[in-house]
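PROTEIN FOLDING TASK:
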Amino acid sequence: MTYQLVQTYFASVFFVLVTWLCFLISPDMFEVRVGIAMSTLLTLTAMFASVRDETPKVSYVKAIDIWMVSSIIFIFTALGGFTITAWIKRGLERMQAPKDDDKLSLEILDYKKRRPLTDMQTKKILRKYRRVAIVIEQYGLYILSLAYVIFNIIYWTWLMKESNYLQWSVNSTFNKINE
């Protein structure tokens, strides 16, 4: 268990934390954020493949598999948040950039009626998207951190309970105590 703690669990926690530190980088540096997140995602994926090769091949899901997949999901969620924020910001910039005749450069259509939206409807949509981007940027780190702490509490409680790790006792035959 000590080997897996140091080589797998602690390392994967650090990769998740490094990805979340990208929330502290300016949203304008999208390429840097995605580059760091993708690097940690690929490294964690390679580490997962290595762990799978080192552990016995069984037909059921092991606890370490759950841990590694969950870590990948947390990193992928942060990456998705970065991407959504960048997509919204770039879309808003394109929509607000005036053309030569001082109108919107990207015409938004009302898909139900197949006609361009009015300025009031367009501004309403812009405000909604802007709010989504602000929520992701301001609260994404906190939401993911809270979810990760809750996941860790549930995971480690389950692991210790199911493995009977806390009820472990010294076996005199295994540990050669009576020699």
Remarks:
- The CA atoms of residues 93 and 105 lie 10 Å apart.
